[in-house]
Design a protein that fits this description.
Blueprint: H1 7-44, H2 50-59, H3 62-75, H4 86-98, H5 104-117, H6 123-128, H7 135-148, H8 154-158, H9 166-179, H10 185-190, H11 197-209, H12 216-222, H13 225-228, H14 236-250, H15 256-268, H16 272-283
Helix pairs in contact: 2-3, 2-4, 3-5, 5-7, 7-9, 9-11, 11-12, 11-14, 12-14, 14-16, 15-16
Length: 289
């Protein structure tokens, strides 16, 4: 057979047609179909209101109930999305009371939603169940009461400073610090001797928020990264966050020793957020920076 210089080009062209026909075109059609389906789905999907989720929490199946409670807590984290009407308040309380024997996830997400709504009318129904709740639900309610910052919850929370679980004591210390009632000052001072370091640290911070410097030595320790490095179970990001909270708590104290620590953190700490927070605190102290 004589050599035909056009033959390779023809074969290459035929191969290209085969690849295009069997692979490229179907792939593009598949991508187009997926995009079309997604567009139709987005256009036709109903937007749920908070009342739709509240209805699902009360009438849906288990999976639907806790997912609806989760979505509700997410939506209410955005203040403009919180309805400012009695109908909403009543519906939230009704859903919460109906969840008393429901799956823990439903109840906990509802508690979080009530806290994020920021309505102190939720304080009373939450307090009513304090003595009956255990473990995670109790932790969630105490945390929620702290977020709501209603002084009427202060006395009910004080007894949980003596709870056998360190996690509950910690949540209570934080909640009392957020509420800031002067009546909790002395009980919080006692928590500076707690066996759990986290409880001690947050007791010092809670007192500092209330203008009490009884936890000064604890705050000084928290401004020392070497001290926190002695707790290997705390990851570096958490350590930096703890230091930031300690810095913010002692800002404006005009304490020479604390200011010296802040200067050191501002100039040499390994974490930029800690350095920035230290600078902000020093700016609140006269003749600094």
């Amino acid at each position: 057979m004589a050599y035909d210089p056009q033959q390779p080009q023809e074969q290459k062209g035929i191969f290209g047609v085969i690849v295009h026909s069997f692979f490229v075109v179907p792939f593009l059609l598949a991508v187009f179909s997926v995009l079309l389906f997604a567009a139709v789905r987005i256009l036709t999907m109903e937007k749920h209101s908070v009342y739709d989720y509240l209805r699902d929490i009360k009438t849906g199946g288990l999976t639907k109930r806790w997912q609806a409670a989760f979505e509700l807590s997410r939506i209410l984290s955005n203040p403009p999305s919180v309805p400012q009407e009695n109908k909403f308040t009543e519906a939230m309380i009704s859903a919460y009371e109906s969840s008393k024997h429901d799956d823990e996830r439903v109840r906990q997400y509802l508690i979080l939603a009530m806290a994020r709504a920021g309505n102190q009318e939720f304080t009373a129904p939450l307090m009513k169940d304090l003595d009956q709740e255990k473990d995670e639900n109790l932790y969630a309610i105490i945390t929620a009461l702290g977020i709501l910052k209603d002084n009427s919850a202060n006395d009910a929370l004080l007894k949980y400073l003596q709870h056998e679980q360190a996690r509950i004591r910690l949540a209570t210390v934080i909640a009392l610090g957020n509420i800031g009632d002067p009546q909790s000052t002395e009980p919080l001072k006692l928590m500076l001797k707690d066996a759990e370091p986290n409880v001690v640290w947050d007791a010092a911070v809670a007192l500092a928020k209330m203008g009490d410097k009884s936890g000064r030595e604890v705050i000084l320790s928290l401004l020392n990264r070497n001290y926190l490095n002695g707790f290997p179970n705390i990851d570096p990001r958490q350590k930096s966050r703890i230091m930031q909270v300690a810095i913010q708590s002692s800002a404006g104290w005009n304490d020479p020793e604390i200011d010296a620590r802040l200067e050191n953190l501002f100039t040499s700490d390994q974490n930029m957020n800690v350095r920035a927070t230290a600078r902000q605190a020093l700016n609140q102290t006269p003749q600094k920076l």
